[in-house]
Design goal:
With 360 residues, the chain is an alpha/beta fold. It has helices at 14-29, 50-62, 72-83, 85-94, 104-110, 136-139, 166-177, 187-196, 215-224, 244-257, 274-283, 292-300, 316-324, 337-358, and strands at 2-6, 33-36, 117-120, 150-156, 181-184, 204-205, 235-238, 261-264, 286-289, 305-307. Strands 2-1-3-4-5-6 form a 6-stranded parallel beta sheet. The protein has a 4-stranded parallel beta sheet with strand order 8-7-9-10. Helix 9 packs across helix 11 (274-283). It is globular.
């Protein structure tokens, strides 16, 4: 089958790119032709808004001391291009994709091509505040409503979102009912969907796509990529939202483990390729992270880890993962890896069954 895959706009997030890669790889291994919808953030200000917006920014900059540039859109576009340069190399090499698309009109134009199936997911594609680029309705594949196609949601997440307004739930109910199959990444989403009355189709709890692949799949990426030993014997610290409290904790762990910390983040002074990021986890002695996918790849590589929690980005996904794999969050530096790997293999079977049955 020819499959179009939709998820959040492209950026430099390691986990986001690897979950995209993993789902594409799995579908290709099943014999399908997969194309990723190359959605990008649109840093563009409509022409009629520019005079007033620029005037306001000039007042803030020159009279109020605000440091933001007057042409904020150009600044953000250039920054995104610089931030994404390493991820772009990985994306171009491993993920078949459309041309760059910036809005729903571009997606609809692209969808004139013949696709048999549209898959949305994984990641927080049903989290309302993360879907503004094309609208939550279009992350429920509303743009395909006049097409005779199969619609599948794989491991969709709502992040830390609470209930949507009732009017929005009612508006989106028909879009949900048009899906052939729905699966979610967090168990908590099952209850949310039930509370909305979205029970046809009935949702299934499945693994994040990154866990569908095995460690040797990622080791192959490391081998193909240009990487170096950066974290052997060290504490690999992948922290998205740094704070003084986290810095103190890391310093304590350096003393406890007699090991140096290697720091890495999406917007820190140290950024690495996706392949290097994988190797840094694989080589490390222990991982400290506040990232969901930092936890996922620590588990995949059987590395002791400390999850710091991240209320802003949402802890439900990690809590759900721990429940799925029967992990005690207080014992993550001394897990029974044989048991954890067995649990992952069990859930792989269930998750593959969902995909296979959905694509029959």
């Amino acid at each position: 089958m020819k499959i179009a895959l939709l998820n959040l706009p492209f950026d430099n997030n390691y986990g986001g790119n690897l979950q995209r890669y993993a789902l594409v790889k799995v579908l290709q291994n099943m014999g399908h032709d997969v194309v990723h919808i190359n959605l990008r953030r649109n840093y563009h200000l409509l022409w009629y808004r520019r005079p007033l917006s620029y005037a306001k920014r000039m007042v803030r900059k020159y009279l109020m001391g605000n440091d933001l540039p007057i042409n904020l859109e150009r600044y953000l576009s250039e920054k995104a291009e610089q931030d994404n340069r390493l991820a772009e190399i990985f994306y171009a090499r491993y993920i078949p994709h459309t041309k760059k698309i910036y809005d729903i009109a571009g997606i609809c134009e692209m969808c004139c091509k013949a696709f048999d199936v549209y898959i949305v997911g994984s990641d927080q594609v049903w989290r309302y505040d993360m879907t503004k680029s094309i609208g939550l309705n279009n992350y429920l594949l509303d743009f395909t409503k006049h097409k005779n196609v199969r619609r599948i949601a794989y491991a969709v997440s709502m992040g830390n979102q609470t209930r949507l307004p009732g009017r929005l739930v009612s508006k989106l109910s028909k879009s949900y009912s048009e899906f052939s199959a729905v699966s979610v990444r967090e168990q908590s989403v099952l209850e949310i969907l039930k509370s909305y009355g979205w029970e046809h189709p009935h949702a299934t709890w499945v693994l994040d796509p990154t866990l569908l692949l095995v460690p040797t799949d990622y080791a192959r990426l490391i081998t193909i990529g240009v990487t170096e030993a950066q974290t052997i014997g060290k504490i690999f610290c992948y922290v998205l939202d740094m704070s003084d409290a986290i810095r103190c904790l890391i310093a304590e762990k350096e003393k406890e483990f007699y090991a140096e910390a290697y720091m890495c983040g999406l917007h820190s002074s140290v950024t690495v390729s996706i392949e290097q990021w994988l190797r840094n986890i694989s080589d490390s002695r222990i991982v400290i992270t506040d990232s969901f996918h930092g936890v996922v790849f620590s588990i995949l590589f059987n590395k002791p880890f400390l999850f710091l929690g991240n209320k802003v980005r949402g802890n439900a996904r990690v809590d759900s993962l721990f429940e799925m794999l029967d992990i005690d969050r207080t014992q993550t530096t001394s897990l029974d890896w044989k048991y954890v790997n067995y649990k992952i293999s069990e859930w792989r079977v269930k998750s593959f069954d969902f995909l296979i049955n959905s694509l029959k």
